[in-house]
């Protein structure tokens, strides 16, 4: 199964981007090749840019506090596991404390590192990080892998409160919806929302269908067009058969 997530506001779009970047960062830092660590460093620069929104930290803190109050209302509910509830509340408390501890502009410690910023500037140019452009970076990429891993972790770890806050909010968001089985006749699906409020939609497909959903939505209507491509003509086209999929509306 493949899940496609479609954010319906800028805040959720930013959180999904951060989640993807942090996951990519984790994957490449764990590897040992110099090219992998080059990608890890480029990803760190992307995280710094996406996280540079002035209101990101306050948005995360406000949402975590709101979710905390919602969850506290479930105390002593016989249908709710007290252990699971306590675990989530403890996670929220721990992440909130870490976020409060992030002072100043997000990623400022990276911006003050002239060596890293020189690499960031050069990597904005296609092929700009060659050894003749950045000999000191070329030297760093030839240092022992464990040394590079330690430095990458040191540069990335101060941003982990953002990663952890994002993970909690997106987990709650994903668990908020109830999946419903749908059919798109001849690859096209439309549903009037009728005032329904959602912050994200999830479309779940069998990967054997070889279809990709093209989603557009506003507060009135949802449109999904399932596209296929292949054969001699590589251009995507609307599927000519009915497509079964699972649709979930998610809202905090």
How would you sum up this structure, described in words?
- 48% of the residues lie in helices and 21% in strands.
- It is of the alpha+beta class.
- It folds into two domains: 2-172, YacF-like; 177-250, YacF-like domains (YacF-like), CATH 2.60.440.10.
- Helix 1 (10-29) runs antiparallel to helix 2, helix 2 (34-50) packs parallel to helix 8 (145-156) and helix 3 (56-72) packs antiparallel against helix 4.
- The chain starts with a strand and ends with a strand.
Mean pLDDT: 91
The dominant shape is globular
Question: SSE order in H/E notation?
Answer: EHHHHHHHHHEEEEEEE
Report the β-strand fraction as a percent range. Answer: 15-25%
State the strand order across the main sheet.
Answer: 1-4-8-2
Helix content: 40-55%
Distance between the termini: 25 Å
Largest sheet: 4 strands, antiparallel
Which value, in Å, is the CA radius of gyration? Answer: 22 Å
Looking at CATH, which topology of the largest domain would you report?
A: YacF-like
Task: Count every beta strand, where a strand is a DSSP E run of 2 or more residues.
Answer: 8
Structural class from helices and strands? Answer: alpha+beta
Instruction: Pick out the low-confidence regions.
Output: none
Counting structural domains, the number is 2
Assigned CATH architecture of the largest domain: Orthogonal Bundle
């Amino acid at each position: 199964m493949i899940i496609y997530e479609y954010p319906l506001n800028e805040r959720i779009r930013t959180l999904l981007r951060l989640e993807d970047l942090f996951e990519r960062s984790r994957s490449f830092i764990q590897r040992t090749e110099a090219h992998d660590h080059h990608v890890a460093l480029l990803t760190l620069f992307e995280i710094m840019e996406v996280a540079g929104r002035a209101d990101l930290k306050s948005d995360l803190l406000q949402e975590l506090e709101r979710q905390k109050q919602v969850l506290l209302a479930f105390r002593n509910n016989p249908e709710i596991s007290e252990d699971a509830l306590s675990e989530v509340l403890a996670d929220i408390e721990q992440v909130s404390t870490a976020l409060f501890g992030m002072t100043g502009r997000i990623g400022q410690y990276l911006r003050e590192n002239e060596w890293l910023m020189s690499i960031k500037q050069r990597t904005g140019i296609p092929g700009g990080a060659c050894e003749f452009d950045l000999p000191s970076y070329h030297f760093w990429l030839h240092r022992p892998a464990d040394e590079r891993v330690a430095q990458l972790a040191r540069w990335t770890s101060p941003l982990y409160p953002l990663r952890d806050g994002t993970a909690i909010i997106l987990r709650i968001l994903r668990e908020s919806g109830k999946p419903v089985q749908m059919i798109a006749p001849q690859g096209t699906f439309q549903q009037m929302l009728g005032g329904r409020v959602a912050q994200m939609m999830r479309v779940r497909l069998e990967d054997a269908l070889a279809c990709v959903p093209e989603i557009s939505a506003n507060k009135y209507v949802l449109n999904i067009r399932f596209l296929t491509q292949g054969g001699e003509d590589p251009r995507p086209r609307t599927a000519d058969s009915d497509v079964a999929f699972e649709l979930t509306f998610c809202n905090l």
